[in-house]
Amino acid sequence: EDKKEAQISSVKGNIKNDLQKDVGHRDFTINSLYLPIDKIGEKHVIDFVNGKNDLSNKIIKATGNPYKRIKESPIRILRSISLSARTGFSIDNELIKVIKSNVKLLNEIPKETIKIELNKIIMSDKPSEYFKMMLDFGILETILPEIYACVGCTQNPIHHKFNVFEHCIYSVDNIEKNMVLRYAALLHDVGKPQTRKEEDGNITFHNHEVIGAKIAAGLLQRLGFSIKFVKEVEHLILHHMYYYTEDWKDSALRRFIR
User: Fold this and answer.
1) Which of 2, 9, 93, 134 could be disulfide-bonded to 140 (CB atoms 3.0-4.6 Å)?
2) Is residue 212 within 8 Å of residue 189, measured between CB atoms?
3) Residues 6+ apart with CB under 8 A from 151
4) Mean pLDDT, rounded, for 55-73
């Protein structure tokens, strides 16, 4: 009996040691909680890093040393934002400091991996908040220079309340959660910085939809989207300047019926 208890104790000790080694390489404390396979109650949660407390306080903290965690896997820079976008949790100040000083590490990871996290952000409830966060952290300029070019690009106040960047990200907030539509909304005016002209106080962006469609296609191809997806977004951007009135739809329908 004593021998059996000793064996059980030894197994438990090994499991604890293995978990402690594993937790050292987890990204965030709220993702570093364990539950025995035969237990489902909250009281059975194994927590070595105060993750339960961070979960209650709705904060995203690195597990252990933030610099080591980011250096170990730079995609965690973007993952912290996508996790914040999906949960509404805030990001720990120490982690933010490390992110801001190590943004260039994102150049080392596959673009398809970046796409996965961007998709989570763009399909969240309010993507604009997290695009502004990426701008503040220095991420936007590194991974989406085409959108960064829209920052501060002013428009005619008669037609637009916001600059091009703000207009684009707020457009994403106000369109349904469809991936094609949301990327089209984000990128629909990406051609404006290259086509902007101002004369006598009048600001124009002639053919920005044509230029923008090409820019958007290049961006999406770089991120590894399918040809079909790229074509669908490109088509919407190219034609977003058409003004479809009720009269136009009625006349088009009559011609179709004839």
Assistant:
1) 134
2) yes
3) 135, 140, 163, 165
4) 96
pLDDT band at 252 (very low <50, low <70, confident <90, very high): very low
pLDDT tens sequence across 143-157: 999 999 999 988 776
Interhelix angle for 76-87 vs 111-122, to 10°? 10
Q: What is the pLDDT of residues 215-227, one digit of tens each?
A: 999 999 999 999 9
Report the distance separating Cα 60 and Cα 133, nearest Å.
14
Two tokens at 79? 């993952």
State the Cα–Cα distance between residues 182 and 195, nearest whole angstrom: 23
Q: Which amino acid is at 55?
A: L
Write out the two tokens for 37. 């396979």
> Residue 229: CB partners within 8 Å, gap ≥ 6?
179, 180, 183, 220
Beta bridge partner(s), residue 91: 60
The amino acid sitting at 186 is L
**How far is the C-alpha of 138 from the C-alpha of 208, rounded, in Å?**
26
**Residue 48: its pLDDT value, please?**
92
C-alpha–C-alpha distance, residues 227 and 231, integer Å? 6
Please count the other Cβ atoms lying within 10 Å of the Cβ belonging to residue 38: 6
Structure tokens at 213: 């469609």
